[in-house]
Every structure is written in structure tokens, then in C-alpha cells.
Automatic annotation (TrEMBL), chain A:
Chief location: plastid
Protein's job: The pyruvate dehydrogenase complex catalyzes the overall conversion of pyruvate to acetyl-CoA and CO(2). It contains multiple copies of three enzymatic components: pyruvate dehydrogenase (E1), dihydrolipoamide acetyltransferase (E2) and lipoamide dehydrogenase (E3).
GO molecular function: metal ion binding; pyruvate dehydrogenase (acetyl-transferring) activity
Catalytic activity: N(6)-[(R)-lipoyl]-L-lysyl-[protein] + pyruvate + H(+) = N(6)-[(R)-S(8)-acetyldihydrolipoyl]-L-lysyl-[protein] + CO2
Protein name: pyruvate dehydrogenase (acetyl-transferring)
Superkingdom as given in the UniProt entry: Eukaryota
Database matches in Gene3D superfamilies: 3.40.50.920, 3.40.50.970
Catalytic activity, EC: 1.2.4.1
Organism, scientific name: Salvia splendens (Scarlet sage)
Entry-linked Pfam families: Transket_pyr, Transketolase_C
UniProt keywords, alphabetically: Chloroplast, Metal-binding, Oxidoreductase, Plastid, Potassium, Pyruvate, Thiamine pyrophosphate, Transit peptide
Automatic annotation (TrEMBL), chain B:
Organism of origin: Salvia splendens
One Pfam family cited in the UniProt record for this chain: E1_dh
InterPro entries the UniProt entry points to: DH_E1, PDH_E1_Alpha_Subunit, Pyrv_DH_E1_asu_subgrp-y, THDP-binding
Chemical reaction(s) catalysed: N(6)-[(R)-lipoyl]-L-lysyl-[protein] + pyruvate + H(+) = N(6)-[(R)-S(8)-acetyldihydrolipoyl]-L-lysyl-[protein] + CO2
Domain Dehydrogenase E1 component per the UniProt entry, residue ranges: 99-399
Gene3D superfamilies: 3.40.50.970
Keyword NAD (UniProt): no
The protein, known as: Pyruvate dehydrogenase E1 component subunit alpha
Quaternary structure (record): Tetramer of 2 alpha and 2 beta subunits.
EC number(s) given by UniProt: 1.2.4.1
SUPFAM superfamilies, alphabetized: Thiamin diphosphate-binding fold (THDP-binding) (SSF52518)
Length: 392, 437
């Protein structure tokens, strides 16, 4: 079935029995680093904390890579990340519907079952709650499962396991068991996929204590986040977007991870802070082109970490521009934007010259008809108008 | 199927709803021939059930053991020479007795402590069901895993978690097995591989399936020498839950080393098993998914142990999962908050005569495996352990505020980066438990 991974069975045995032994960390591409000490975790293992970047620069692949790198599509970048981690650690395995022989509904795991076998890339029956629970049990006993929700919407069926077990089990067990799972999959509004396949689950999951949520938006950060999520000892939900899988970008040849907790500076600016994530980043950048032509200078930040928010990067930006526009795909009610608005108001109220504007999707089930679907999500025109009003 | 007018009249959970099922029952019934505790049931009585079956008939005969066709014919010892074929040695007998008595004494102490205000919330006691826990768990190695439900104190004790740690956890002290953060319904032990303790029924079954998957993965992918098995304990109510069926399917599909142990005590709080289940014979659901289904008298620790040996052996050899339905009964209410008004006193009295501890005692005496004095010594030892655990729990400190934010994340960087650029877990208020996260 599976080939040898160059890991002796003794080492693997140790690794599985005491998952606290983390493999050595690799170079993280940061602009600046300073060591932090974090001794607060009194549970059984001593955490190894890597350096944190006080970063204001964009994580520009070109500046970091010495070689030109290679071009990939976003789904290929995800697969590269997965494959590298599976190669590196034999405990990393994949569960999901059609992830094995079919290669994943968006081909993220294509070829991996041939390489690693049917047990390591497990085609599950259609039983989300149970196979996510299975991933929890596997994680508790030493494996590092990456679970694919064929569409994030299906994970609603697994809410019991994600909330109670992924999120809370580390705490209720008094820190005895870790749940290093990654739950990933495509979500968001696509092209006329209908209401149920167009859901934004980040808004439902955000209150669950004990999980981290990240959203990728470029091939570069997709690969980096995938790797970081797999290496994290916390349960991480990685949100991909159905419409972004074919984005192309040149990414470094060398290995890299990105920070799970940091936001990404997309375009520095002076006039207004635009906070966004996932697909809306592209609507914002499109609007930015128009805005620049009209003489505005927007600062665009891809928040990337949906839970927790990177209040440092966001705060620094607000202290500079004093105006905030949030552009997101969640519904108006209870979405990421709603939480972000609250967090900014709480922390940076003094720095705001104007109320925060939050552009979200309409609180409607996503209609099938293309014309209606278009107006449920935020369009670049609306972003331009909002900035113009904010900056008046 | 027709149900009696009130839920109170329950004779035998194995009700035959039609003569068709009775025939099938006869053909797949394998009766253990050797003498067992309290067993007066002969093949004749069971076979005669076939002719007297009607849709509404109830039968007061208890069943020794029923297995589906998939289980291979086991060795059958002739009943008449049973006296020379003892099921256990003296040492084993004492271990079983001690474990069951520990479970009973501990739970009784829990009730006392609850009513004295030392523990709160929902506490579900295991009195009456000890044979299932002892019968199965005493066959396990330390590396084997156990997954339970909210009725998990005794599973934890049987698996080896010290009584002190369990009692402290119930009192909500830092010395509890989960640092006081879990409580009665969330007993976990990494050292003894108790994977919980779950409040929602059915929630633990996928976790158990995952642990069994890890065992198979270690063997087949990591090429380790691993034959660890996992036991999943849950009740009759859970057997109508989707997660149960989904996991039966996956476990059988991948031949996972797991045993699904149903503790059928006939009642899900106030819901009688017969009122909620279209086919109450839970063991039959195993073959539907391609695994053996076995029914066993869960008030008889030796019968349970025998079935457990076979099921655990199957799992260890890589032959796949087994579904074992243990007919058992809880002597107390569903929880300490349950007034337990719906159950018929006659039913309770009948099961009280089948008390597993009394039955084992009788067996030990009758077969000269132990005498009164030895068992009294065991009782005394256990009583002291229980007293000590209460004293220990009483004397232990309550969690300080600084414990609040620990253990939310294995990696506390998950709380994110604060406005000042530092990770929130670096904030001194974080260690004090007063940080806003």
C-alpha cells in the first residue's frame, strides 16, 4: 500500500504516541522577526514557539525567493502543500468524499491516493458528522487528518463534531488530547450553484471556541496556509472558494509556510483601509483600479485569519487612514464583517474619523438566477461608491 | 408492533413480533451450554417460544446468548459437566469482583456527595450495569482505547483511572483527571486511553471509530506492530441515532478493530426502548452492516466476559468489528436529577434479583473460588479507596482564575495577535485569566 517514508518505525511509533514532539520547524518567510516567550500553556507538553513577525510589508514571493519559482493554479498549490506535508510526516492523512480515486471534487488531492494508498487518502462514505468525528478520534490517538468537506455547506451536518469535539475536546479533557485536524473545502458563492451550495460557513463557525479559521485567496497563501494548518496543533478550518481554484501565480520553489494568525497587506495606501478576504479580495482590487484612476489611495488588507483577527495589522492601518471599509461575502447578520466591526469599534474607536462601513452579501438564500445572484454579493461598483462616500 | 398500554410492563426486551422472526431466532440462536450465573434456561424453554408467539405476547424468559449466523460456531461444552469447567480462576474472579464492587461503591458515594452539595450538574450513575464494564474492560491492555458516554465514571475506573482523579474531577478540582474542566460527563485519560466522556449520545462513536482507524493505520501504513482495539460503549437510545449507523457501516467496511457495546438498559431517561425503536433487537442491526451481532445477558459478568473475549479477539486478529448488545439495567434513575417515576417497581425488583455483584459472589462461593472473608477484605479495601478519594478531592484546590484560558488551544497562538503586535497569550493578563480574548 504505502511506500516507506524514510521514517524508521521506532521514530514513527514515538511520533504517533507522543504527538507533542513536533518536527523541526522550517524557514518561515518573514520580513522581521523577534522572539516571543509563551509559557502560559501549562498542559503536559512544552510548546515550541517560533518567531513572530512584526510585519507591515507584503509577503511578496518575489522578494523572498532566490529562484524564479514555478507557476501553479490555486488548487495545485493546495495539493503541493498537502503532498509536501504528507511526505514530511507519515501521520498526515486525508479523509473525505471522493478524495481518493476521484482526486477530490476540485482535484486538490489528485494523484495522492495512487502515491500514498487508499488508507492514507481515505474515500469515506457520505457521513459528514461521522467521518469528521472519526478524524477527531484519529487525531486524539496520534494521526493528523486533513478532512475535506466536498462543499463547505455539507459541514453543517458535522456541526456536532466540529463544535463539540474539534473545538472543545482539548479543553474538556484538561489539555490531555490535542486535535490537530484541518478541515478544508470549497465554499462561497459560485456561478449559479443554488442556495445550498453557496453558503458561507465561516459565519456559523466563528463562535466555536477552540478552532482557528483561515481563508486562502491566492496560490501563494493557499499553499502556505495549508502547510501551516497541517502543522498546527490546533484544529484549523481552511476556507477555500469555489471560484478561485483556477487562479494562477508564480510561487517559490523552496518550502515555506505562512502564519495562521497574520493578515496580508495587499496594497499599501493612505486614504482608507479596506478589509476583505477570499474572493472579495478580487472585487476589491478591481474596484481599487477604478479608485486609483479617480485619485484615491486605498490600503487593501486581506485579513486571511478569520478567527482570530490580526488586530495589529488592522490597527496599524486604521491608525494611518482613520477610515474602514469591510468587504465580505458573508451575510449581513452575524457574519465575519459584523464581528470585525465590533472588534474594531472596541479597540480602535478613537482612531476612526467615520463610522465603519461594512459591505456584505444580502441576507437572502443565494438565488439560482444569474442576475439575482450577482446582486446578492458585493460588486466592485458598490465598493467604489462606498469609498467615495467614506472619503468625502 | 403492539406495545402494552403503559410502558411499565416490560418482561423481556427480546420480544418476537411475528412468528417469522421467532423462526429466524431459533435458527440463529446459539445457546451457551455451560452453566453460568443464575442461568436456569434450557434450550427447551427457548425453542418452545416459537409455537407460542403472537404479536402482542410477552415472554418472561431471559436469553443466555444469541448470536447471528456470522459468528462461527463456538466450542460448546456439555452443560452437565459444567462444574469442572470453571470460567475463571480465583485470581480472575477476585479481580472481577473487586472491579464491580469499586464501580458500585464509587457510584453510591457519588450519590451521597451530590446530595451533600459537593458535585453539581448532571451526574449519571452506573449502578446495576457493572458487569458490562468489568466484563469487557478487564480484558483490555493499557494501550487499548475506551470511549463512553455521560455514564462514564465506572468505565474510567475499570480502565484504570485512579478513583481519586475521578472523584476530584466530579468535585471540580484541579487534581481531577481533566483539571476540573470536564466534569461528570467528560472523563478523559491519556495515560489510560479513556477517550471520553461525551454529553451528546452518539457523539463518541465516531471518535471510537477514529481511534480504531488509527490502530489499523499504524499497522498498515506506519508498519508498526499494533493490535490495539477500541471499545465504544453506548446505550439503547443511541441505537436510533444516525452516527451509530454511519459508524457501523464504516467500521465494517474497513474492518476496523472496534467493538460496539450496547448497554441496553431499556430506558432512555423516560423513553422506553420499545416505544422508540421499530425493531428493538439491537443485535440484529450488526449483520445488516456485515458484522456479527451478539446479544448477551449483561447482568452476568462471566457471560459478558466470554462474549467480550471473542469480540475483542476478532478485532485484534483484524477480522473486524462486532456489535454486542448487553441486556442490562440501571438500578437508579437516568441521572441524580431524575425522579424515576415511569419505571415499574416490579421491573426494578426483578432486575434487582439479578444484581451482577451478588451473582458473581454466589458463583465464587459455589465453586469454592473465594470465601466470605476474602470478599469482605476486598470490600474493605475498596471502601478505604473510596473514602480516600473523597478526602483527596475535598482537600484539593479549586481551579484558580488563571486556569480559565489555558487548554482552549493546544497552541495558544490561536488566540491571535493583539493591537499591540504581541500574541495575546503573551499578555500577562492571559496567565491571570483576566485577558479579553
Amino acid at each position: 500500500m504505502a511506500a516507506s517514508f524514510g521514517v524508521s518505525s521506532a521514530a514513527a511509533a514515538n511520533a504517533v504516541k507522543s504527538p507533542a514532539l513536533s518536527p523541526p520547524s522550517l524557514p518561515v518567510i518573514r520580513s522581521e522577526a523577534r522572539p516571543i516567550s509563551c509559557r502560559v500553556n501549562k498542559s503536559r507538553k512544552a510548546g515550541k514557539i517560533t518567531t513572530k513577525a512584526v510585519a507591515a510589508q507584503a509577503e511578496n514571493p518575489a522578494s523572498a525567493a532566490s529562484k524564479p519559482g514555478h507557476e501553479v493554479l490555486l488548487f495545485e498549490a493546495l495539493r503541493e502543500g498537502l503532498e509536501e506535508e504528507m511526505e514530511r510526516d507519515p501521520r498526515v492523512c486525508i479523509f473525505g468524499e471522493d478524495v481518493g480515486h476521484y482526486g477530490g471534487s476540485y482535484k486538490v488531492s489528485k494523484g495522492l491516493a495512487d502515491k500514498y494508498g487508499d488508507l492514507r487518502v481515505l474515500d469515506t462514505p457520505i457521513a459528514e458528522n461521522s467521518f469528521i468525528g472519526m478524524a477527531v478520534g484519529a487525531a486524539m490517538t496520534g494521526l493528523r487528518p486533513v478532512v475535506e468537506g466536498m462543499n463547505m455547506g455539507f459541514l453543517l451536518l458535522a456541526f456536532n463534531q466540529i463544535s463539540d469535539n474539534c473545538g472543545m475536546l482539548h479543553y474538556t479533557s484538561g489539555g490531555q488530547f490535542t486535535i490537530p485536524t484541518v478541515i478544508r473545502g470549497p465554499g462561497g458563492v459560485g456561478r449559479q450553484l443554488g442556495a445550498e451550495h453557496s453558503q458561507r460557513l465561516e459565519s456559523y463557525f466563528q463562535s466555536i471556541p477552540g478552532i482557528q479559521m483561515v481563508a486562502c485567496s491566492t496560490p501563494y497563501n493557499a499553499k502556505g496556509l495549508m502547510k501551516a494548518a497541517i502543522r498546527s496543533e490546533n484544529p484549523v478550518v481552511l476556507f477555500e472558494h469555489v471560484l478561485l481554484y483556477n487562479l494562477k501565480e508564480r510561487i517559490p520553489d523552496e518550502e515555506y509556510v505562512v502564519s495562521l494568525e497574520e493578515a496580508e497587506m495587499v496594497r499599501p495606501g493612505e486614504h482608507v483601509t479596506i478589509l476583505t478576504y477570499s474572493r472579495m479580495r478580487y472585487h476589491v482590487m478591481q474596484a481599487a483600479k477604478t479608485l486609483v484612476n479617480k485619485g484615491y489611495d486605498p490600503e487593501v488588507i486581506d485579513i486571511r485569519s478569520l478567527k482570530p483577527f490580526d488586530l495589529y495589522t488592522i490597527g496599524n492601518s486604521i491608525k494611518k487612514t482613520h477610515k474602514v471599509l469591510i468587504v465580505e461575502e458573508c451575510m449581513r447578520t452575524g457574519g465575519i464583517g459584523a464581528s470585525l466591526t465590533a472588534a474594531i469599534n472596541e479597540n480602535f474607536n478613537d482612531y476612526l474619523d467615520a463610522p465603519i462601513v461594512c459591505l456584505s452579501s444580502q441576507d437572502v438564500p443565494t438565488p439560482y438566477a444569474g442576475t439575482l445572484e450577482e446582486v446578492t454579493v458585493v460588486q466592485p461598483g458598490q465598493i467604489v461608491t462606498a469609498v467615495e462616500q467614506l472619503c468625502r | 408492533m403492539a406495545c402494552s398500554a403503559t410502558a411499565k410492563i416490560i418482561h423481556n426486551p427480546l420480544v418476537f413480533s411475528s412468528s417469522r422472526s421467532a423462526e429466524k431466532y431459533e435458527s440463529c440462536c446459539k445457546i451457551s451450554g455451560r452453566s453460568s450465573l443464575g442461568s436456569k434456561f434450557l434450550g427447551k424453554k427457548l425453542l418452545s417460544a416459537k409455537s407460542a408467539i403472537s404479536p402482542a405476547s410477552r415472554r418472561s424468559g431471559a436469553v443466555v446468548a444469541v448470536s447471528s449466523d456470522i459468528v462461527k460456531e463456538k466450542k460448546v461444552k456439555s452443560g452437565s459437566s459444567a462444574a469442572s469447567n470453571l470460567l475463571i480462576t480465583k485470581e480472575e474472579g477476585l479481580v472481577l469482583y473487586e472491579d464491580m464492587y469499586l464501580g458500585r461503591a464509587f457510584e453510591d458515594m457519588c450519590a451521597q456527595m451530590y446530595y451533600r452539595g459537593k458535585m453539581f450538574g448532571f451526574v449519571h450513575l452506573y449502578n446495576g450495569q457493572e458487569a458490562v464494564s468489568t466484563g469487557f474492560i478487564k480484558l483490555l491492555k493499557q494501550e487499548d482505547c475506551v470511549v463512553s458516554t455521560y455514564r462514564d465514571h465506572v468505565h474510567s475506573l475499570s480502565k484504570g483511572v485512579p478513583a481519586r482523579q475521578v472523584m476530584s474531577e466530579l468535585f471540580g478540582k484541579t487534581t481531577g483527571c481533566c483539571r476540573g474542566q470536564g466534569g461528570s460527563m467528560h472523563m478523559f485519560s491519556k495515560e489510560h486511553n479513556v477517550l471520553g466522556g461525551f454529553a451528546f449520545i452518539g457523539e463518541g462513536i465516531p471518535v471510537a471509530t477514529g481511534a480504531a482507524f488509527t490502530s489499523k493505520y499504524k499497522r498498515e501504513v506506519l508498519k508498526e506492530d499494533c493490535d490495539e482495539v477500541t471499545l465504544a460503549f453506548f446505550g439503547d437510545g443511541t441505537c436510533n441515532n444516525g452516527q451509530f449507523f454511519e459508524c457501523l457501516n464504516m467500521a465494517a467496511l474497513w474492518k476496523l478493530p472496534i467493538v460496539f457495546v450496547v448497554e441496553n438498559n431499556l430506558w432512555a431517561i423516560g423513553m422506553s426502548h420499545l416505544r422508540s425503536t421499530s425493531d428493538p433487537q439491537i443485535w440484529k442491526k450488526g449483520p445488516a452492516f456485515g458484522m456479527p451481532g451478539v446479544h448477551v445477558d449483561g447482568m452476568d459478568v462471566l457471560k459478558v466476559r466470554e462474549v467480550a473475549q471473542e469480540a475483542i479477539g476478532r478485532a485484534r486478529r483484524g477480522e473486524g468489528p462486532t456489535l454486542v448488545e448487553c441486556e442490562t439495567y440501571r438500578f437508579r434513575g437516568h441521572s441524580l436529577a431524575d425522579p424515576d417515576e415511569l419505571r415499574d417497581p416490579a421491573e426494578k425488583a426483578r432486575y434487582a434479583t439479578r444484581d451482577p455483584i451478588t451473582a458473581l459472589k454466589k458463583y465464587l462461593f459455589e465453586n469454592n473460588l473465594a470465601n466470605e472473608a476474602e470478599l469482605k477484605a476486598v470490600d474493605k479495601k475498596i471502601d478505604e479507596i473510596i473514602e480516600d478519594s473523597v478526602e483527596f478531592a475535598d482537600a484539593s484546590p479549586v481551579p484558580a482564575r488563571n486556569q480559565l484560558l489555558e487548554n482552549v488551544f493546544a497552541d495558544p497562538r490561536g488566540f491571535g495577535i493583539g493591537p499591540d503586535g504581541k500574541y495575546r497569550c503573551e499578555d500577562p493578563k492571559f496567565t491571570e485569566g483576566t485577558a479579553q480574548v
